[in-house]
Amino acid sequence: MSVDSLKNYFEPLFEHLDKQLAENGEVAGFGPGFEEEVAKAYIALDGPYEREASVLCNKASVAEFEYETDLLNITKEEAATAASIAYSQFELKAFDDFISQFEYENFEDADLKRQLKFLSAIGTSALDDTDLKRYNEVLSEMSKIYGTAKVCSYYKQDCDLETEGFALEPELTAKFSKMENYEELKYLWKAWRDATGPKMRKLYMEYVELGNKAARST
Ligand SMILES: *[C@@H]1O[C@H](CO)[C@@H](O)[C@H](O)[C@H]1NC(C)=O
Sorted alphabetically, which keywords does the UniProt record give (predicted)? Predict the structure, then answer.
C-alpha cells in the first residue's frame, strides 16, 4: 500500500493534525512524527483496527467454544473453522495494508512500538487461503481426537468404552491431578496415548509443516 492510499484512509485525521500543526506554527507534512500519529490512530481502542479485530476475534472465540464443547457437531466445526479463517484473513490484510507499512522501529512511543511489534507477528494468518483452511481443519481434527477419545478404568480394562470409558475432560484430568497410584497412572497415561497418538500423528506432522510455512513467509 502506498503513502497515498494511507493518506486517503486517514484524510480526516490528517486534516485535524495539519490544523493543529498550523496552529502551533509548524509545517504540516508526512514526517516520522506524522507516521507515528497515523499508526497510533489506526490501532487506538476506538480506531479502525480495533473495531474490526475485536468483533472478529470475539466471533472466532465464541465459535471455537461452541465447537470445543460439542466436538461431534459438524455444523459447529465448520462454523469455527470459517470464523477463524475470517479473523486470520483480516489480520493478514491489516498487516499488508497498514501494520507492515509503519516503520515503527523509529517511533518514539515505547507502548506503540511494542503494540505494533505484537501486531506484526501474525503467525499462521500469513498462510494463503488453501493452507489456512487446511491448517484450521487439522487443528479442529486434532481437538476432536483429543476431546472424544476414551479409555477404560485400570480396574476394568475391558470396559465398554462408549458407556464406561473415561474422557480427558473431566475424568482423566481429575485423575491425573489427584491420583497417586503409580501403576494406575502409568496405565491410564499409556492407554490415553494409545487412543490418541496414532490418530494424530499425521495431522500433527501437517500442523508443524504448515506452521513452518507460515513462519517462512513472514
Ligand atoms: C449442531 O449444532 C447446530 C447449531 O447449534 C444445531 O442446530 C444442530 O442441531 C446440531 N446438530 C447435531 C447433530 O447435534
Answer: Disulfide bond, Glycoprotein, Signal
